[in-house]
Amino acid sequence: MNADADARWLDAAARLAARGVPLSRPNPAVGAILIEDGRVIGRGWTRPGGRPHAEAEALSAAGERACDATLYVTLEPCAHQSARGPACADLIAASDVARVVIGCPDPDPRTAGAGIARLRAAGIAVDPTDSQACRDSLAGYLIRAAQGRPHVTLKLALSQDGNLTPGPGKGQWLTGEAARAHVHAVRARMDAIVVGSGTFAADHPRLDVRLPGLAERSPERWLLTGGPAPPGWRALASPQAIGAMGQAQYLMVEGGAGTARAFLVAGLVDTLLLYRAPLVVGGHGPALPELTAAALAGDPQWRHTDTRPLGNDRLDVYQRT
Q1: Burial (CB count within 10 angstroms: exposed 0-12, middle 13-18, buried 19+), residue 127
Q2: Residue 286 pLDDT more than 90?
């Protein structure tokens, strides 16, 4: 057993799981990799609608070679059988794999601990771990299980001094084409998207995905409003009402300053995606000075997890601590 190798393969399984987001709902997006002598012999991720499961995909790809191999899976294999297929713990037990390394326990009471117990009863070595990469890949599922709401990503385009608009006479966009294309790619991984009524009235945003081949991945649109929603939209009475979003695991908030601050004050933002333009606007229009890089650097409730250039702009990612 090599802890470093286990961590690397779990990280790889977590990246694989991302292919199932958000189409796996209502099931979690899981990744699984089978390893024999340091080589991949099978891999899988949860398919649209939740079936087949990742473990079943990996075992099918490996065939008889799965015997005595090591299976890396991001989430504890399910222990409950349904009309749609057998329990993954039973499939794994029948495959005679030698070892299973699990990145995250399953909070579902039908499986919690039972998946591990069933594997051990079959004589399989099981190593549960606490992989941050696996937890991050399952964020929507885990937050819905624990808090009854989707994982919330707040996306904003900001100037260096926290303004949300470029200022009078400087056009509509703060950021360039590369940053806007990246936003569309992120939208394609969301179940739903929210905008405030003020932004809706001013901009009439489409909030769809306009990337080749991904138009059908546009998320369900919600409007934060005290009144009815227009055709094609659903009304959200308050940030706290996101628990009523059915099976949604991933929600993106793209509203203006008022909507952003409402979600932040309610403590409902899990991830910040801040697209920073290389300009200082000054005292023009709506602003969120608490989200400048300097302000966030001194805020203990956020950890800076990623940064990358997007044309002339920069994306900064923060996770709630």
Answers
A1: middle
A2: no
